[in-house]
């Protein structure tokens, strides 16, 4: 219901050189609208394609929507509409962790994770847990049991069980050890919740307030919604809601290695660390610090994906940002819509502009 592990990302490496050609945004918008009308982009709510600082396309479509699993009925989506990011939220939390780390307010990646939660001394004392580091949460390699393969309507799904637990942090930390940390990528909204707790503890601010002060306001993002669980904690795994243009702003910030309007918002070295492959997701996809990674290391493509077809794709070189929202929640084929926006429209147009 809330998050969605990536099963097939299918992002393409671009690796272009060439001379820019004139931009015809209206033509690309018309192509997207024609494809949507033909049923080729099912569930698409909106798409933005930016390339080297130019907006190539921006379109919106009506569709049934949800707010963190609660049906909202038919919505007329627009540039001002808030929309679930679902698990794209995780990558935003990754940016916030880097900001807080630069301020000296959260532990370094090599710090022992359980030592940051002294309120659970019984868990800290269990053999093997002292080996789990903060970086294992950042890369989802904690080595503890966690299962989000079950439907999000199933209370046995680990994220749903976390949300239903009287103490979400104890629930996450007490999961049985499955293997040594750092060996296997195990998709975990719980790992991100722990990182959000470290941000709150270190900064003294709730996650949403810290995001507003340190990331959203500097980018000019004025409107957002961060859905909280029953315990009042903003869901770090899947609760953020933004407009599509504001998600694209975050994508552009990443493409520019953390710089916006001449100001370093997210440390460049943190983004470089985040884009280092640390775990294999599948044959074509690696995982860094809360970002999926495809392509060669020197031409990284960073991807954030969420349940229903939410997607942010960023390739800093040559400067491609593609953001899309969709309403195919809990549909295992939802990734196909956002991938079509990327591969059938964004990539060909960027190649055309570069004369390839």
UniProtKB/TrEMBL annotation:
Pfam families: Beta-lactamase. It comes from the Bacteria. Residues 75-327 form the Beta-lactamase-related domain. It comes from Stappia indica. Gene3D superfamilies: DD-peptidase/beta-lactamase superfamily. PANTHER family: BETA-LACTAMASE-RELATED, BETA-LACTAMASE-RELATED DOMAIN-CONTAINING PROTEIN. This is CubicO group peptidase, beta-lactamase class C family.
